[in-house]
Amino acid sequence: MKASQFLISTLKEAPADAEVVSHKLMMRAGMIKKLGAGIYSYMPMGLRVVRKVEAIVREEMNRAGAVELAMPVIQPAELWQETGRFEAMGPELLRIKDRHERDYVVQPTSEEVVTDIARQEIKSYKQLPKNFYQIQTKFRDERRPRFGLMRGREFTMKDAYSFDRDQDAAKLSYQVMAKAYRKIFDRFGLVYRAVAADSGAIGGDLSEEFQVIAATGEDAIVYCPGSDYAANMEKAEALAPQSPRAAATQALEKVSTPGMSTCVDVANYLKLPIENSLKTLVVATDERDDKGEIVKSRVWLLLIRGDRSMNEVKVGKIPGLAGFRFATLTEIDEHFGCEPGYLGPVGLKKPLSVVVDREVAVMSDWICGANVADYHLSGVNWGRDLPEPDVIADLRNVVEGDLSPDGKGALAIERGIEIGHVFYLGTKYSRAMNATFLDVNGKPQFMEMGCYGIGITRLPAAAIEQNHDERGIIWPDALAPFTVVLCPISPDRFPDVKAAADKLYAELMEAGVDVILDDRNERPGAMFADWELIGVPHRVTLGDRGLKEGMVEYQHRRDAAATSVPVAEVLGLIQARLKA
Amino acid sequence: MKASQFLISTLKEAPADAEVVSHKLMMRAGMIKKLGAGIYSYMPMGLRVVRKVEAIVREEMNRAGAVELAMPVIQPAELWQETGRFEAMGPELLRIKDRHERDYVVQPTSEEVVTDIARQEIKSYKQLPKNFYQIQTKFRDERRPRFGLMRGREFTMKDAYSFDRDQDAAKLSYQVMAKAYRKIFDRFGLVYRAVAADSGAIGGDLSEEFQVIAATGEDAIVYCPGSDYAANMEKAEALAPQSPRAAATQALEKVSTPGMSTCVDVANYLKLPIENSLKTLVVATDERDDKGEIVKSRVWLLLIRGDRSMNEVKVGKIPGLAGFRFATLTEIDEHFGCEPGYLGPVGLKKPLSVVVDREVAVMSDWICGANVADYHLSGVNWGRDLPEPDVIADLRNVVEGDLSPDGKGALAIERGIEIGHVFYLGTKYSRAMNATFLDVNGKPQFMEMGCYGIGITRLPAAAIEQNHDERGIIWPDALAPFTVVLCPISPDRFPDVKAAADKLYAELMEAGVDVILDDRNERPGAMFADWELIGVPHRVTLGDRGLKEGMVEYQHRRDAAATSVPVAEVLGLIQARLKA
């Protein structure tokens, strides 16, 4: 490609609404253009990156035995009504009426359509396994679209769906995909982690997120430097402390804590370590009748250490606590006879279900609210001041230094950006849509499914969050809009520079290198600034002085300075670096 | 590809709603699957064809200097309001409201968005010319979607838009595209014509449709076998007859034609040739005020020969007749004092504007209505019985045998399917959206635009309409989902067949041939029927008996019978046929 035939359109300043670095740099490098909230045009420079992502994903999906198809962007509501998602999904699902007032949705994913295809196409176990995928436009009507491609409304996703005869086969399909994903993200040249994720109501361990590591990531990733353990915060297990509960050493005491309603305030005020304090969380669950009316509610007391944070996913998985909510002030008053801020498990007005975090179960001499405004209890001990805990569970988010669940060291935490997810679905959709096949015995069985996504247009943004400096983007070779840029200096003044640039360009093109020749006649400073902003990894500068001695300058985007290279060796050098 | 890893899903019968052969065959061959009215999933077999279309289009667009980008499928209404199309377009434009009740459209084309990009990106004449294109999902909410991919609602279009500094440059950009289109359709291996089309209000000749020739085509194409003249019916010019008007030989006579209100009936009844009769068409034009209220109407009389049909596009281009409508009965009575069926230009009650077809202007001794119910006039002659015509124009559709406008022989007519259109837009959109650049003198000028479409997903359907037989599709090499199919006969019983098929498959794959190995263990009859339906052009059958002598059977989809070929020569044979 020659720059004069392309569209190079860089900006000195990022627009005011660009908050994160990838959004800023993609706007400044002319890769995307905003059309509306969360809706972007992919400009020529940006589209080249997207196409490279697509090509690698397609190649590895095909290699893993998945078959590409394309489902419509605009889908009739009927199938979505079959699974109940048409009603159940919130306003994120963009709903449309056509000229005949019939309902449609813009696909956010395609479980319904692909399951409909499978139930029509797959009759027998002999046709299984099958894995269908598409690389297609999706839309999610986010309440607050932001961060450019990171949280847009219209985006491109690769979504794959596997169909299997039984759970074992489904797990195999899942593993094949998980392996393909590793290959894909390896090829992109990104630093990433596959982390265990919550698998929802299905249970089991068959849910992993692929997270690109970046300080600016939205997600906290938990990992063990001494092993391959990695999980997202929702999923990462906090083990029970290894040491047993210490014996009580203090007497129970009611202490005045005027106006001190947080654990931190109380600990500071009492000059006691926060690790000795207890956080009291009051939640409730509702039983509903067929019409969805609440017929009975139950109040629960959850206890975690004062410096910990509750993990809502873990709490929701405790038997009886699925779909829990925070308790109302009335419910709290009914059980504690006190306002929030001074609640505790000792001396309740009315008994309730108590669930105690693993860590809390081994605490002694602790502090908690006295169920009287402006008072706390100190020196509280299980068994002596209140009954031993009934239900002990993992209720909290892990923190740095916690013991790894695999026992192989302490946990560390870093930030990541989710760019892929592999997920075992079970029969959730095949049951809802009656997608069956005949097994070896001729009996109908629900298909076992898995789904596997990659955020095609999010990926370039994640790559930039991980790979940039103050001058701009630094693309990994596999994602760069162009692999090499040739920068001739003043080719209009020096015919030998123009000739050498044209010759090298032809040579690189011939060798299949994805090269762009900057024939715009820009001044060197402006030209270099453009390419550093755009982030092309390999740059060759051709100047009159060097060429007199047969030399040009090579500089990798990460190099601090250029290296003189004989012009005849440029191709070899670049090919060697691309292989490395 | 191996068939067992792919999805081959053929049907004996086409669904009842499939009316045209391409729709039937694409459904039967498992290429598409209907999801809703005019909404299809592209199944793996069909998507391969679509991807081949896309790849060739992309390659030739890039080669022609166009730059690929991608504009959003869902576009905010604001830009569409700028050009007035948000209101002006009918219900074909799918309109959406998002969660915040803001208006959006699903793109049917992208003139507004691309012009918005151009007005932001292009500041100076130095940046021109530019041609941006995308291959993207489009939606048109057709009232009656039908014929499968031929007239679907969701479809993929390649739309390109050129921007130029002046009309001459714009015409050059147009020619570059027209040339690229010929190359594209040549590469597809289709029989097509580029036909002149109406260029709307802009005038000039810069509008051509690319029509795939097929007996089932919706469009009539006019061409001259003796030259390269070709136009669509709307555009094809009917020349004035070459012979001058003959002298009058008959006296004007008022004849009784009871109940005979059509030209055919009258000519038959009077035993006179229909070529002597005249069709009287009464139309009207309205002048409106600023509020759109009609302030004045004008009635026009159009005269064409009795066996001709009116060409509405031509009529609309006559000065004063833009936006014409048919006259009301009141208007007709006011001017003729008679009901339709017996109208004529002689003895009008109230004068009106008369426009006479070129052919009619040279007729003598003709028949027309007498402006009295149940009566006609015969032996009517210009100059003698009524004044010579004022305005003479081309008002009619051409017919087979008409003189070609280039004077190089007689016109012929055939049917076609429109798969591409190149169109000079002028400054229609750049004016509406104030898209200017600074010219050499530093003065702002509106950009001259052109637009260029190819129906990516319609093209396979058109190719099938042109290339099929009673057994199924016959793909041109460039469009086939697979170029070659290997059909081993009973490989489960004959290990040598399986081995030879695997070996040949590996050899063809290695050589870059797009081959599929049918490893499904189907019976030969069913296997052949599948591949003939799917339309893979080259088939190699491997049987135990032939292989004992080192021979396999080669058959092109158009061949009546197979040819014995040494297995060692198969690759060479196929490569030679693919080059030819």
From TrEMBL, chains A, B:
Keywords: Aminoacyl-tRNA synthetase, ATP-binding, Cytoplasm, Ligase, Nucleotide-binding, Protein biosynthesis. It catalyses: tRNA(Pro) + L-proline + ATP = L-prolyl-tRNA(Pro) + AMP + diphosphate. It is found in: Cytoplasm. GO terms for biological process: prolyl-tRNA aminoacylation. Transmembrane segments: none annotated. GO terms for cellular component: cytosol. Consists of three domains: the N-terminal catalytic domain, the editing domain and the C-terminal anticodon-binding domain. Belongs to the class-II aminoacyl-tRNA synthetase family. ProS type 1 subfamily. This is Proline--tRNA ligase. It comes from Rhodoferax lacus. The gene is proS.
